[in-house]
Design a protein that fits this description.
Chain B: Residues 41-424 form the Aminotransferase class I/classII large domain. Chain B: It comes from Vitis vinifera. Chain B: Its cofactor is pyridoxal 5'-phosphate. The complex is a heterodimer of chains A (540) and B (469). With 540 residues, chain A is α/β, with parallel strands linked by helices. Chain A has helices spanning 29-46, 51-74, 89-93, 99-102, 117-123, 129-139, 163-178, 189-192, 201-214, 232-243, 259-263, 287-300, 322-335, 358-361, 397-406, 414-425, 427-454, 481-493, 524-539, and strands at residues 152-153, 226-229, 249-254, 271-276, 304-310, 338-342, 372-377, 390-394, 458-459, 467-471, 497-498, 500-501, 512-516. Chain A has a seven-stranded mixed beta sheet with strand order 2-8-7-6-5-3-4, with helices on both faces. In chain A, strands 9-10-13-12 form a four-stranded antiparallel beta sheet. Chain A starts with 28 loop residues before the first helix and ends with a helix. Chain B is of the alpha/beta class and 469 residues long. Chain B folds into two domains: 7-52 and 323-427, Alpha-Beta Complex (Aspartate Aminotransferase, domain 1), CATH 3.90.1150; 67-318, 3-Layer(aba) Sandwich (Aspartate Aminotransferase, domain 2). Chain B is built from 17 helices and 15 strands. Chain B starts with 5 loop residues before the first helix and ends with a helix. In chain B, 51% of the residues are buried. Chains A and B meet through α5, α7, α8, α10 and α15 of A and α1, α3, α5, α7 and α12 of B.
Amino acid sequence: MNHSRSRRNPTREPDFPTAKPPSPGGSSGGGAGAAMRLIVPLQGVVQGRGGLILGSVIPGALYYFFQLYLKRCRSAKPNSNPPSPSSSSAQLADLSRSSSRSNLSSRGSVGPVRVSARANSIAKPNASPYYIGLERASEDPYDRFDNPDGIMQLGLSENRLSLDLIETWILENLERSMIGGADGNLNISGIATYQPLDGMMEMKIAVAGFMSQVMGTTVSFDPSRLVLTSGATPAIETLCFCLADQGNAFLVPTPYYPGFDRDMKWRTGVELIPVHCRSSDNFALSVTALDQAFNQARKRGQRVRGILISNPSNPIGNMLNKETLYSLLDFAREKNIHIISDEIFAGSTYGSEEFVSMAEILGSEDFDKDRVHIIYGLSKDLSLPGFRVGVIYSFNTSVLAAAKKLARFSSVSAPTQRILISMLSDTRFIQRYIETTRERIQKMYVAFAAGLKQLGIECTKSSAGLYCWADMSGLIRPYNEKGELELWDKLLKIGKINVTPGSACHCIEPGWFRCCFTMLAEEDIPVVIKRIQRVVELET
Amino acid sequence: MKMLSRKATFNSHGQDSEYFLGWEEYEKNAYHEVENPSGIIQMGLAENQLSFDLLESWLAQNPDAAGFKRDGESIFRELALFQDYHGLPAFKKALVEFMSEIRGNKVSFDQNKLVLTAGATSANETLMFCLANPGEAFLLPTPYYPGFDRDLKWRTGVEIVPIQCSSSNGFQITESALEEAYQQAQKRSLKVKGVLITNPSNPLGTTTSRDELNLLVNFITAKGIHLISDEIYSGTVFDSPGFVSIMEVLMDRNYMNTEVWKRVHIVYSLSKDLGLPGFRVGAIYSNDVAVVSAATKMSSFGLVSSQTQYLLSVMLSDKKFTKNYVSENQKRLKQRHQMLISGLQNAGIDCLKSNAGLFCWVDMRHLLSSNTFEAEMELWKKILYDVRLNISPGSSCHCTEPGWFRVCFANMSEDTLNLALQRIKAFVDSSTTTNNNQSRHQSNKNQRRKSFTKWVFRLSFRDREASER
């Protein structure tokens, strides 16, 4: 849905004496005049032989070369255009893992004051295949009836399987819930006026209850420890602002959600240090690897403030067990750092495993509570990304105090809070919704994974999330990132499906792809498989 | 440990200024007609509660808008999944047309240059991130909205340098004041990136004059810097002279397609004009493609709920409703404004002549024991604890002259406003009572000093708590 915009070419045309009139902010107009005054006297000198023509061509040429020389001196850095979204696969192969960094060339400025450095780097079109793929698929979206040749979107982890349940509830309960007073008369002051910018208390109570329900009621959440934000995106950024200064770092196990690179780094100046996990351990997190990364950072003089984990993991779809959570806590205690646990997919489980929240293992351990912070939101488990509801849950009262004040920059709309208070308080409905969603996700997962298996593509064993982590390493040639991106490109252009390549998630092993299946209907699965088959056959 | 970032621990959020402390006191002892008739009346909140009935009747007549329906068909699915940071096109279209209508259709806006944010608070911060690097500065005319110290500076690292305005000319911006501010910034080794004005002004309640706007255009052209015009009160202008938008001035001077055109940005919101602060709807408007592009992406950190966008797109597209609402709302504001200023006049208190906003800029200099900010604080505390009114002292707005206060009039019922005016009258009368009450005053003063000491102690304790961990 993001419009691709090819950038204006920043190189300037050489300024000929007959060039454009000076603009209010322009700086080069004066230069042309001065140069002319130097050159014209020369004209008389050459006028003897060749006349007017030589007399004007030579100074003109001299002037042209002079401008060219000036321009080369002026531009300190190379002017490289970032690849436009419709780049060929050859260009894609040049995408390095740190592609965002290679695009830090400054624009040629046309006026004396430009936008900030931050804005400059943010404004550039994003070169990651994660974003490119999302855009392409949204420009030509598949529809079983209206656009059967369109691109099928398997790169966006959105759950559309149970929206019908929510829609029905809303249409049946809306009037009562949104603005209706006890006497049936509309009373807008409850939603129109300023509300606490970190969320209404009733909303916090409702969300805390929902979090508990969705995580299996084995843990309860204290509403006073919640700060609500307009989505999980600002939740994670706000937490970064609270826990780290510019230049500090977080350890993040790979592969990880591509959005973290944007959400956590853009405006905070915080760094992410990848801690690589491998397929040999089923991409399990190893404390040894964390320790190594921490020590290396220290040697570099980089201060590590915490670990960011996503549990259930995005893009793998596995869950951390109690022992791992305990050892993470031990590690954090030993290094005196924080743990941010992004648990946004906690309710989207489909295996036999039970989800264990960080909050759960802290029940008895009071001492380390201050280090643990949880991110949550209603975009995945409740299928409502448009409503913008995110959560920071922390046991640390200082973090909460700071986050509460920062929430003013990303507060949740009051009418939306009203309607959700109503819905989330209908615990019977919520229970039914949670159970139905789980069943539907599982059905889709089983069908999808089986379909991939038939093509010889295995997925990591997973029990949660809206996607599977597929091993297509056998299909890529050469066995590296270039080969992976070529396959991604073929899947997009020939197979007409958008999946997320592992390199966009910083996976250390090439050939892995995240395939989201909850945006499809059951009938679409065979279509997807057939399309992948088409590409697979090309490769073998 | 459990160490927090510098930003989280330091007082850079300005939360401990009196402006916010008054609110805390109010929350502890809030006035209620029935339950707490001697409580503190909130006159420090610039909220418009005068026209809820108009909104309620519109909602009652248009159930589809809140019901996720378009032409009777449910569009719930579409809205539930809509999180495009380009915003709902129908809403942006309706919003730019509404903005145009408020400006008497003398200016038209392009919806593709509009970026939606969760409130003007988010819009202002985002613009700072886009236009300035940490350590650079923006010039702001004083007095200004206390929230700017937090919104513009906190996470962005940007500095504010005040443009000192004085009561001698009604706090208007002068060329010398602009130059002086610029020099000040240079002395502090701060690179000035632009000027930010609020038009109509908060806390003055006046529209910026055409002369001032032209002056500003000249200034930013000469210095090659940006101009942000925060126009969130543009629809609350209830008296002449009317509202003149910066865009109008630029167009009159034929500045379209110049460099300067691209350096002027507008911030808007529906919190004041439409009385819907709870909805969290703000916007940035800019003619600079790079700013729009960066701001659009940054808006990911503060998107407006799709449900809200849709509801408002229907409301604002109802041109009959918006026209009626804006004019009726302005009438009611004018009437309330009149009520406040005559009530204050009755107590011997004057206000700055104003024609907009939800508040008055009140002159209480004659009630100060001395022409100092300490005296202003003393007076403010008396008004808060004894008169039981929460108003905003000029010092929290960085006013250079002590004795001015911002008093809001649109966030309460008429009865409550009357009560507040009665209390003020009683207070002024008792303060000017003659010397035979002097001894009583003396003992009262001692009591007040004790509670003052207690208050300071509480304040410092709070401070310590915040920075300790």
